[in-house]
Amino acid sequence: MCCRIFAAYSLWYLGYPEQACQRGQAAVDLARAVAHPYSLAMALTLTAEIQLLCRDHKVAQMYLQEALTLSQTHGFTSWLELGAIFQGWAMAQAGQAEAGIQRMVYGLDANRAMVGEESGLHCFAQLADAYGKAGRPTEGLALLDKALDASDKSKLRHWHQWQSELYRLQGELQLLQKEYTTLTAQEVLQTEACFQQAIAIAQQQQAKSTELRATVSLSRFWLRQGKQAEAYQQLAVIYQWFSEGFATPDLQEAKQLLDRLHS
């Protein structure tokens, strides 16, 4: 079951969202077959995160509702806490950002009370994303600054798969702080650097899904700067790589932007 879950994560990052969801469902099916409650709670919770990576909050919520009920029944504290964080992220994706933030903060606080203040760094990107959706970019940027502070050696630093998203969200939240017309030349360079760093990290990791997201962010930014040809060229390369997942929001948004850039 664990192998199927972690294969699902790997498949999503590598650019195969449909296979990732199928592998996650296979993990859930196997956990049901062996009738092991803890395994089922784990499979449901982590498969929900895979659905959230694919930005399907409705399916994620179905997994989470069952996982949280099961965890409450059996006292699986860790899955209750992580499930609350993912539930809040699903709410934010569904347009209930403020309520989602409250739920995520509750889950993070509960987890830290049990295992210590150094936990939860891997959830900073999700929470920062929710702050952005709530129109609170300053609070989201403060979280990202903390997560990206490499000088603080006391923090957990092994969540490398989130590095690209941390930089991409940093660029997006910087844009939310100000109208584009008020950005200084230095701020334009800083924002572009965030997106370029996100792309570079994703390429180093061969993580096509996060590379696509970062490239969409950079291409939108370049379009606003009048760099339409450059934006189209870079986005077309990564979009054309994909062979599946064209019904997912990430690929749909990329296609819509490509059409706009090509017009």
What's the quick description here?
78% of the residues lie in helices and 0% in strands. The protein has 263 residues and is mostly helical.
Could you explain how this protein is built, in words?
This protein is mainly α and about 260 residues long. It has a domain at about 165-263: Serine Threonine Protein Phosphatase 5, Tetratricopeptide repeat (Alpha Horseshoe). It has 13 helices and no strands. It has helices spanning about 1-15, 15-35, 35-55, 55-75, 75-95, 95-115, 125-135, 135-145, 165-175, 185-205, 210-225, 230-240, 250-260. Helix 1 (about 1-15) packs parallel to helix 3, helix 3 runs antiparallel to helix 4 (about 55-75) and helix 9 packs parallel to helix 11. The radius of gyration is 19 Å and the shape is globular. The chain starts with a helix and ends with a helix. The model has no long low-confidence stretch (mean pLDDT about 95).
* Uncertain runs: none
CATH topology of the domain at 166-263: Serine Threonine Protein Phosphatase 5, Tetratricopeptide repeat
| CATH class value of the domain at 166-263 | Mainly Alpha
Query: Strand percentage, roughly?
Result: under 5%
How many helices? The count is 13
Main β-sheet: number of strands, strand sense, barrel status? none
SS-derived structural category: mainly alpha
The CATH level-2 architecture of the domain at 166-263 is identified as Alpha Horseshoe
Fraction of residues in helix: over 70%
Question: What's the end-to-end separation, in Å?
Answer: 47 Å
Rg (C-alpha, Å): 19 Å
Q: What is the H/E string?
A: HHHHHHHHHHHHH
How much is the average pLDDT?
93
What would the principal axes of the Cα set say about the shape?
A: globular
Number of E-type strands: 0
